[in-house]
Amino acid sequence: MRSKNRSDRSNRSYLLIPLRYEAVKAEINDREDTPARTYRAPGRVNLIGEHTDYNDGFVMPAAIGFSTFVTVSPRHDRKLSLFSENFSEQVEFDLDDPDPRPAGHWSDYPRGIAVTLERAGYRLSGASLRIRGEVPIGSGLSSSAAVEVATCYALLDNSALSADPVKMAKLCQRAENDFVGMRCGIMDQFASCCGQAGKALMLDCRSLDYKLLPLPDETRLVICNTMVKHALAGGEYNIRRAECEAGVRHFAQSLPNVRALRDVSEADLKRYGNDLSEVIYRRCRHVITENARVLKAAKALGRGDLEAFGGLMNESHHSLRDDYEVSCKELDVMVELAQKVRGVYGARMTGGGFGGCTINFVNAENVEELKQTVAQGYTAVTGQVPEIYVCSAAEGAEEVIADENRSRSSEFNL
Ligand code: GLA
User: What is the pLDDT of residue 19?
Assistant: First the structure.
């Protein structure tokens, strides 16, 4: 396990759609006389380890080829001006506002970053930010984390400050927890900061140690978007967290070393879990078995056993559906269709649940068959037209350098 620093990013090649970078680079070149700088942070997909991050457990996400771009130019006052290309809207805030509050608006995410950085002792310079998000919003691919991380990077650099990627991930999670009011874990921000092309990131959410696990060249990550997001998603997320906390209080009575469900084994669950209510027992069983599955999945990937890896993904879906109850009809339909396709090692819902996307780990040769089967079958059953994205694991957040000859790092290998 190791921590990543920026100097460690060389000789990488992109698996993303280069056109998007060309467009951003061209725009930066147009403004060459302005001191504006652009930063990119990706969304993520989670291969396995769902609803384990806030239980101090294990997750295995990968950054994906959809990003948010933030272009920042300095101001000479202590104002923060935010323009969203997605919403065609501009808002302005005072960095010296003594009582900043969220407004239930898209600007809460970037503003929350500024507020959190200031509270953590980073003295920010005024800035104008232009935000362009390409991560599908509300699809469970972490468009929020992408906005947060790109903003954090931009605001720090604009103030001649810096934080290493792990620290940045923690600050962004804090902004979402404390300012936006969503009690998310660390997974999304961590994947956006620390992802690497061609690799899944196996993260211990307690120690924040991580390993980058190469994904075989012949495999693809196919993300299928149900195009639905059920309204109960946010509330149910917090309910699940509270249920896990109730489980921890129960086990800690018999096992004083238990601080989180991460510390409870399957044997402990059988031995001490009988007095739990049926619902809390199932919630705990999901988290405990899911942690074990992530560890097994990392080993399977290490020995190139893709069938075993995919089998664990399938089991994860069933556990999320039956024990944790965060799936929905649309996700189940998609997963069942995919699991029957030749060359699909595993398929499951990904992210918080109640809609959003599935992740399919598939042999590159069978991608077309998978796309057709899912698109036709899903529409036939639900009447909805899905979106399907064929991805490879992508790079984490970084500055977009306009001209490679004057690049401050060798990060861009387009
Ligand atoms: C959301 C949260 C993450 C994580 C997942 C479920 O994406 O933001 O922190 O808890 O749900 O695994």
Answer: 43
Strand partners, 61: 46
352 CA distance to ligand 1 centroid (A)? Answer: 5
Ligand 1 pocket test, candidate residues 187, 236, 327, most atoms within 8 A of CB: 187
Q: How far from 80 is each of 114, 115, 149, 194, 397, CA to CA, in Å?
A: 8, 11, 16, 27, 21
CA–CA distance, 129 with 292 (Å, rounded to integer): 42
Catalytic residues: 188
Question: Distance of CA 99 to CAs 44, 93, 95, 115, 283, Å?
Answer: 32, 11, 10, 10, 38
Residues in a beta bridge with 212: 201
φ, ψ of residue 281 in degrees (nearest 5): -60, -45
Count of helix runs (H) and strand runs (E) in the chain: 11, 12
User: In the structure, what pLDDT confidence band is assigned to residue 234 with cuts at 50, 70 and 90?
Assistant: confident
Q: Do 322 and 290 contact (CB within 8 A), yes or no?
A: no
Instruction: State how far the alpha carbon of 400 is from the alpha carbons of 22, 107, 110, 413, in Å.
Output: 10, 22, 19, 11
Q: Quick check: 16 pLDDT over 50?
A: no
Atom of ligand 1 at shortest distance to CA of 46? 12
- Kindly report which listed range (4-13, 136-145, 199-208, 269-278) carries the lowest average pLDDT score: 4-13
Distance separating alpha carbons of residues 193 and 165, to the nearest angstrom: 5
When comparing pLDDT for 361 and 6, which is higher? Answer: 361
pTM for the full model?
0.90
| % of residues, the chain, pLDDT over 70 | 88
User: How would you write 235-276 as a 3-class SS string?
Assistant: HHHHHHHHHHHHHHHHHHHHCCCCCCHHHCCHHHHHHHCCCC
Residue 161 has pLDDT above 70, yes or no: yes
- Helix, strand, coil percent values for the chain (each to nearest 5): 45, 25, 35
- Closest ligand 1 atom to residue 59 Cα is 12
**Which residue has a Cα nearest atom 8 of ligand 1?**
184
Nearest-atom number in ligand 1 for the CA of 185 is: 9
Calculate how far, in angstroms, residue 192's C-alpha sits from the geometric centre of ligand 1. Answer: 13
Q: pLDDT value at position 403?
A: 58
Q: What average pLDDT does the segment 337-357 reach?
A: 97
CB within 6 Å of ligand 1 — which residues? Answer: 50-51, 53-54, 184-185, 187-188, 351-352
Q: Quick one: tokens of 327?
A: 């799936």
